[in-house]
Write a structure and sequence with these properties.
The chain has about 220 residues and is an alpha+beta fold. The chain has one domain. A hairpin with a 2-residue loop joins strand 5 and strand 6.
Length: about 220
């Protein structure tokens, strides 16, 4: 009997440890996303503050792997947030980006990727199913410059604007054909329960964790 109780306690401890480890992985992802925004803000060729001020959604993917040898591939895990009617950013929703491209290319590089969404509805549709950049939704390289490159009346013809950074410099990258989808397992690991992306995007369960608060303040600090 004692052996059974001991085994049960050991198993319980292992499960708790695994759960905590999984949550910590997502915590680091949120912290890395805040660092990406902070580094972008330091750069001369930064995302224009005016563009961030009017945008309603954002996707941040730290250290996305962009690899290729004739046929290229992309794979990255990050998070998405939308801006509420009160101007505050939602809880992070964990996402995955996968996609490929064709053409001569070689090598492997790590890229920090930020996607700026003009309308939050475009991003919130991901909660229903995955969508394809350049297919279901248009994407273009975003304007750069802290203020002069994009005025408040900038014509936002694309639905999504992309920004990427590799080795401290802005880097061109093709996202046509890349798919964004919800990472439900990561959401459950971080929030310790199954939460719908719609609930997280709506702000109905706004997280107060320090890493989330830091991410929100870092993002808002880029344009306020």
């Amino acid at each position: 009997m004692k052996r059974i109780v001991f085994a049960a306690l050991m198993l319980s401890g292992i499960l708790i440890s695994v759960s905590a480890g999984a949550q910590q992985k997502e915590v680091k992802k949120i912290e890395a996303s805040a660092s990406v925004l902070k580094e972008f803000g330091k750069m001369k060729e930064s995302i224009p503050a005016q563009l961030l001020e009017v945008t309603e959604g954002i996707v941040i993917i730290p250290k996305m792997i962009n690899a290729g040898l004739v046929i290229g591939g992309k794979r990255g895990k990050g998070l998405a947030m939308v801006k509420g009617d009160d101007g505050k950013w939602s809880d992070p929703v964990f996402i995955t980006l996968t996609g490929g491209s064709f053409g001569f290319q070689a090598g492997v590089q790590s890229v920090d990727l930020v996607l700026i969404f003009k309308n939050k509805e475009s991003l919130m549709d991901i909660s229903k199913s995955s969508f394809t950049l350049g297919g279901d939704i248009s994407v273009a390289a975003g304007p750069v410059g802290r203020s002069s490159s994009a005025s408040t009346d900038y014509k936002l013809e694309a639905e999504v604007y992309s920004y990427s950074r590799s080795k401290g410099l802005f880097a061109g990258i093709s996202l046509s054909g890349a798919a964004l989808e919800i990472d439900h397992l990561a959401i459950e690991d971080y929030y310790k329960k199954a939460v719908s992306p719609k609930t997280l995007f709506s702000g109905s369960s706004r997280a107060k964790a320090p890493e989330v608060e830091k991410l929100r303040s870092t993002l808002s600090g880029l344009y306020q």
